[in-house]
Design goal:
Protein name: Transmembrane sensor/regulator PpyR
Keywords: Membrane, Transmembrane, Transmembrane helix
Strand content: under 5%
Structural class: mainly alpha
Number of domains: 1
Organism: Pseudomonas mangiferae
Radius of gyration: 17 Å
Transmembrane segments: 20-38, 44-67
Number of helices: 3
């Protein structure tokens, strides 16, 4: 199975989009808490990582949101009856 085959099926793309939304929200929130709430206790490399997460998290959130919109539009076009069958 090719990695692009995952995006061919709107139902699988919707599941992936939901995971990206959740991961992005978790990474962004964790990065914000670590970068700005725990900054006095963390060493510099951990702070750099935390600040990086404040950029990566919202990026994943945006990608997941767009994927969710596209997969929902494809599901609506086929009235939700899209069969994802592997041979």
């Amino acid at each position: 199975m090719n990695s692009l085959d995952l995006l061919e099926c709107p139902q699988r793309a919707l599941h992936l989009a939901n995971r990206l939304l959740l991961s992005g929200a978790a990474l962004g929130t964790g990065g914000l808490v670590a970068a700005y709430g725990l900054d006095t206790w963390l060493p510099i490399p951990a702070l750099v990582l935390a600040h990086g997460l404040t950029v990566v998290g919202p990026g994943l959130l945006k990608i997941g949101y767009v994927m969710r919109l596209l997969s929902q539009a494809r599901l609506r076009r086929f009235d939700g009856e899209v069969c994802c069958v592997e041979a």
